[in-house]
């Protein structure tokens, strides 16, 4: 089992898409391991997006992600890093396919509703930026044996 970090961004909260987005992960069978509704500080935003420092969109991105609350989440499941990326969809609106969160609800490369870790290393780094160890809940999901039969 693998863990990934995901986040509904300020546009998702403001547009009332939290339930719609979460439902997709729940229905897929993915387990919620942690969740936090929060404002991101400038300091945390800079740490989270450190890989983008120096890019033309960096200042805008920091402003956007700190502008309104987000829902930070940890999901757990087999190959969940790749699967959550797939369900989120491509970054740019013309590439994001229908059926993905971005493909269905976003028209902008920046305001694209959801974040999803892109590798095992990013997932570990991002989870520890947003959550303390005791905030990640270890429990048995009763549907697991129907979602992962083997
Ligand atoms: N060309 C751009 N112009 C404006 N904003 C951008 C651009 N490219 C990326 N962003 C913003 O920066 C975020 C991080 O970019 P990245 O390249 O990591 O995309 P991603 O991995 O698809 O998205 P995320 O990291 O949020 O899951 C994007 O989700 C988007 O909000
Ligand atoms: Mg990324």
Automatic annotation (TrEMBL):
PROSITE patterns, from UniProt?
NDPK, NDPK_LIKE
Compartments where found = Cytoplasm
Look up keyword Ribonucleoprotein and say if it applies.
no
Q: Which cofactor does it need?
A: Mg(2+)
> Which Pfam family is one of those matched by this entry?
NDK
Name its GO BP terms in alphabetical order.
CTP biosynthetic process; GTP biosynthetic process; UTP biosynthetic process
Cross-referenced InterPro entries: NDK-like_dom (IPR034907), NDK-like_dom_sf (IPR036850), Nucleoside_diP_kinase (IPR001564), Nucleoside_diP_kinase_AS (IPR023005)
Annotated ranges, domain Nucleoside diphosphate kinase-like: 1-138
Q: Which sites are catalytic? A: 115 (pros-phosphohistidine intermediate)
Q: Where does ATP bind?
A: 9, 57, 85, 91, 102, 112
* Protein keywords: ATP-binding, Cytoplasm, Kinase, Magnesium, Metal-binding, Nucleotide metabolism, Nucleotide-binding, Phosphoprotein, Transferase
Output the Gene Ontology terms for molecular function: ATP binding; metal ion binding; nucleoside diphosphate kinase activity
Reactions catalysed, semicolon-separated, are:
a ribonucleoside 5'-diphosphate + ATP = a ribonucleoside 5'-triphosphate + ADP; a 2'-deoxyribonucleoside 5'-diphosphate + ATP = a 2'-deoxyribonucleoside 5'-triphosphate + ADP
Q: What is its EC number?
A: 2.7.4.6
**Highest taxon, organism lineage:** Bacteria
Q: Establish whether keyword Amino-acid biosynthesis is in the entry.
A: no
This molecule's function is given as: Major role in the synthesis of nucleoside triphosphates other than ATP. The ATP gamma phosphate is transferred to the NDP beta phosphate via a ping-pong mechanism, using a phosphorylated active-site intermediate.
User: What does the record note on quaternary structure?
Assistant: Homotetramer.
Protein name, UniProt field: Nucleoside diphosphate kinase
Tell me which species this is from.
Sebaldella termitidis (strain ATCC 33386 / NCTC 11300)
Gene it is expressed from: ndk
């Amino acid at each position: 089992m693998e863990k990934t970090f995901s986040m509904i961004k300020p546009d998702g909260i403001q547009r009332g898409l939290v339930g719609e987005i979460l439902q997709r992960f729940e229905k897929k069978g993915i387990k919620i391991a942690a969740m936090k509704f929060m404002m991101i500080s400038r300091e945390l935003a800079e740490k989270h997006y450190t890989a983008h420092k120096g890019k033309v969109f960096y200042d805008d991105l920091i402003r956007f992600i700190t502008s309104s609350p987000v829902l930070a989440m940890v999901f757990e499941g087999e190959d969940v890093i790749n699967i959550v990326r797939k369900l989120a969809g491509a970054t740019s609106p013309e590439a994001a396919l229908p059926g993905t969160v971005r493909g269905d609800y976003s028209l902008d490369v920046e305001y694209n509703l959801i974040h999803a870790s892109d590798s095992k290393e990013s997932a570990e780094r991002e989870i520890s930026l947003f959550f303390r160890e005791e905030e990640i809940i270890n429990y048995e999901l009763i549907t697991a044996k129907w979602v992962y039969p083997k």
